[in-house]
Specification:
The chain has about 80 residues and is mainly alpha-helical. About 55% of the residues lie in helices and about 0% in strands. The chain has 2 helices and no strands.
């Protein structure tokens, strides 16, 4: 009845690493946004600000702002 010899310190550390990795994955799902999504929001805010500035009564015409495509959804797998 002999079993494999196991280094308990390595097993403990592997368990801690797995727990941290699981927590990190949960945080990425909960809080993470891709660079594309952040850029889209920044561009959308700039477009809205330009449209608001363009709606002001002024002697100069407002610059034209081209619409941008929304980011593609991320897969969660």
């Amino acid at each position: 009845m002999t079993g494999d010899i196991v280094n308990l310190n390595k097993v403990r550390k592997a368990k801690v690493r797995a727990g941290k990795a699981r927590g990190s994955e949960e945080n990425r799902i909960k809080f993470g946004r891709t660079k594309t999504e952040r850029r889209y929001d920044d561009d959308e805010n700039a477009r809205r600000a330009a449209a608001l500035d363009g709606a002001k009564i002024a002697s100069e015409p407002a610059p034209a702002v081209a619409p941008i495509d929304p980011p593609k959804p991320r897969s969660t797998t």
